[in-house]
Design goal:
- This protein has about 110 residues and is α/β, with parallel strands linked by helices.
- The protein contains three helices and five strands; from the N terminus they run E-E-H-E-H-E-H-E.
- The chain has one domain: Transcription Regulator spoIIAA (2-Layer Sandwich), CATH 3.30.750.24.
- Strand 4, helix 3 and strand 5 form a beta-alpha-beta unit.
- It is globular and about 30 Å long.
- The N and C termini lie far apart (about 35 Å).
Length: about 110
């Protein structure tokens, strides 16, 4: 797979991730997300994620660390069940700021 299989839409307070988060794409996805994060509260909608491996958990944890370092509040919505299972398996689920429902402005809230 190529890194072009993953797209991050939006900028600032709401980002939507579509496609793969795997070892082949995780570095590019990390950079795309970092470039698009706004300040304050940021919601990352993962409903469009189609395939994951353990690198997806690492990505989400890295975004949490970077958000904390930059004074942002980060939350994840519509987390893929496979990522959730991996995070539980690795004992890091409680480190992920999960929200059951998307915030205002997200397609699922409409």
């Amino acid at each position: 797979m190529t890194t072009s299989s993953t797209v991050i839409e939006g900028e600032g307070a709401l980002l939507r991730v579509h496609g793969l988060i795997t070892m082949d794409s995780v570095e590019a996805v990390l950079e795309q997300g970092n470039a698009r994060f706004g300040t304050g509260e940021v919601t990352v909608d993962l409903a469009g994620v189609t395939e994951v491996d353990s690198s997806a958990v690492s990505l989400l944890l890295q975004w949490v660390r970077e958000a904390q370092a930059n004074g942002r509040q980060l939350r994840y919505v519509n987390l893929n069940s496979n990522v959730k299972s991996l995070a539980v398996l690795y004992g890091v689920i409680d480190l992920l700021p999960l929200q059951d429902r998307p915030g205002p402005g997200s397609a699922a809230a409409a």
